[in-house]
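If you are new to this repository, start here. Below is one unmodified record pulled from the training split, so you can see the exact layout before writing a loader.
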Amino acid sequence: MPLETSDSALISNILDLRMSDNYIFIYNGKTSEIFQFNREGKFIRKIGREGNGPGEYSLITELGIDESYKRLYIFQYDNFPLVYSFEGEFLSSDSTMSYTGGIYVFDNGNKALKGLVMNPTTNAPWAGALMDRRGEVIMSKSLYNKQNDNEEYLYMKEICFSSFGDRVLFSTLCNDTIYSISSTNI
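And here is the target side for that same chain:
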């Protein structure tokens, strides 16, 4: 599908793309901008902007969608994810999702969380987690041996996180097992 481009929406380096029922959200890495298009490819708006103030983002890792509440999540390194409405309004910075690098929202409101890998010594305490609609992590799965103090073994490199039907599959390059998160269990 061709996307409408103009001087205000030039796309050159797509680092992430998320689709809702009505919209396409694109993170353009070259300009550090998030663009919103309708499903026919018509440009709607830019979402937020890069910076250090309230509602401004930096070092984006991923985008996430909550279709039921019409929310766009902007995940970033070393900061809480930002939450915007589908109308482009900044709503909040979500502190319940510290160390989260991505999200998948289930129909019941529970969320599958992807762990955030920053460097070999600063990782989420889990590779994947299940959060209830109140914002509490109710289960999680780590993919490394916590009893080993060697940093080489504690590093969860490149967490792979992919929705598949009514669940999310996740794994890392440091482990040969694929795990599954459903709306009620890991």
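Two things worth knowing about this chain: The radius of gyration is 17 Å. Helices lie at 151-154.
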